[in-house]
Amino acid sequence: MSPAVLVLENGQRFTGVEFGARGQTLGEAVFCTAMTGYQETLTDPSYHRQIVVATAPQIGNTGWNREDGESHDPAAAPGDETGRIWVAGYAVRNPTRRVSNFRATTSLQDELVEQGIVGIAGIDTRTVVRVLREHGSMRAGIFSGDALAEPDELLERVRTQPSMAGADLAGEVSSPVDYVISPDGEPRFTVAAIDLGIKTNTPRMFAERGVRVHVLPASATLSDITALSPDGVFLSNGPGDPATADHAVELTRGVLGEDIPLFGICFGNQILGRALGRSTYKMKFGHRGINIPVIDHATGKVSITAQNHGFALEGSAGEEFDTDFGRARVSHVCANDGTVEGVELLSGRAFSVQYHPEAAAGPHDAAYLFDRFVAVMQGENA
Ligand SMILES: NC(=O)CC[C@H](N)C(=O)O
């Protein structure tokens, strides 16, 4: 097995072995605590430009299949549209040697090679995670093969890459063209979904509820939206720093001005929050995993949620504030650290959450939010 090295911005190096493609990759090192769902994690466009460190020690048991991908490439061959890996790199402790799942068509190792994703295995991921937890997410690189020829240069390469703060990335992952996901059965409503890095399970959750989803590129304008006469607008998850997403924020303000019902997830929550006048900040190490507890301020109920974010909205539990579109409040907070996990207009016409009710992968506690959005489109008071 050939050597590979993970180099962190603070100068720490972890030597392991190649995993996936050979070469060099740069990105922000972040850790994900999910025990399962690596295929969904790797294909989630929100991880664009990030090197994911898995805290679960053994990765790859279920191989790779043609069904669980979360990216959407309308130009890809049928059956392959959801499989693009978006992470910049993958760092694991112990890759499985034998795939064991009836749906697997290949192994994770082979898929990483196929897609040219550079990874590293055999490092003490517990130590890496402790460093990231203590010092925060930081720039990093994984190097193997010829990239190891000049070991003294690696740290410089890591340190000269752009930081995640200030990164405007939604346009790099968004579909360049519109596409439509048809509902199961008769269409009841049409939602215009702004693709800032949308995961495929989101339109699927709408489709199950009779909603036709018209996905629009991140560059869509308010007239592109109103031309569809949608019953609602959806703001997707996505990569990068929400403070850079000025176009999406202006678009959202336009949608709120038209009083079209609006729902947002993750990046979409940060954008709705900004449209309501709040600002965002970079968290120390973010929330990435599938068992993160969130408190709904209105009911006191806790949902166990899937999350993947490194930025958050300013605010505190239950805080109410005035906006250009009426009064709003912080609707949800994280039970672990009190960060904002949701905002809403008191009118109920617009709401969003920082976590992932589409749960791919993850627990289904928050799926009711899709029902709530359908109820708002139906004209019911949410
Ligand atoms: N999953 C997401 O939508 C992530 C949103 C944003 N890029 C963040 O890291 O906070």
UniProtKB/TrEMBL annotation:
Residues annotated as catalytic: 266, 356, 358
Residues the entry annotates as binding L-glutamine: 46, 238, 240, 267, 270, 308, 310-311
CDD domains: GATase1_CPSase
One Gene Ontology term from the biological process aspect of the record: 'de novo' UMP biosynthetic process
Pfam family, one: GATase
SMART domains recorded: CPSase_sm_chain
UniProt entry keywords in alphabetical sequence: Amino-acid biosynthesis, Arginine biosynthesis, ATP-binding, Glutamine amidotransferase, Ligase, Nucleotide-binding, Pyrimidine biosynthesis
Biological function: Small subunit of the glutamine-dependent carbamoyl phosphate synthetase (CPSase). CPSase catalyzes the formation of carbamoyl phosphate from the ammonia moiety of glutamine, carbonate, and phosphate donated by ATP, constituting the first step of 2 biosynthetic pathways, one leading to arginine and/or urea and the other to pyrimidine nucleotides. The small subunit (glutamine amidotransferase) binds and cleaves glutamine to supply the large subunit with the substrate ammonia.
Region entry Disordered, spans: 60-80
Protein name listed in UniProt: Carbamoyl phosphate synthase small chain
Family that this chain belongs to: Belongs to the CarA family.
HAMAP family found in the cross-reference section: CPSase_S_chain
Catalytic activity: L-glutamine + H2O = L-glutamate + NH4(+); hydrogencarbonate + L-glutamine + 2 ATP + H2O = carbamoyl phosphate + L-glutamate + 2 ADP + phosphate + 2 H(+)
Top-rank taxon, per record: Bacteria
InterPro entries tied to this protein: Anth_synth/Amidotransfase, CarbamoylP_synth_ssu, CarbamoylP_synth_ssu_N, CarbP_synth_ssu_N_sf, Class_I_gatase-like, CPSase_GATase1, GATASE
Quaternary structure, from the entry: Composed of two chains; the small (or glutamine) chain promotes the hydrolysis of glutamine to ammonia, which is used by the large (or ammonia) chain to synthesize carbamoyl phosphate. Tetramer of heterodimers (alpha,beta)4.
Pathway given in the UniProt record: Pyrimidine metabolism; UMP biosynthesis via de novo pathway; (S)-dihydroorotate from bicarbonate: step 1/3; Amino-acid biosynthesis; L-arginine biosynthesis; carbamoyl phosphate from bicarbonate: step 1/1
All residue ranges annotated as the Carbamoyl-phosphate synthase small subunit N-terminal domain in the record: 2-143
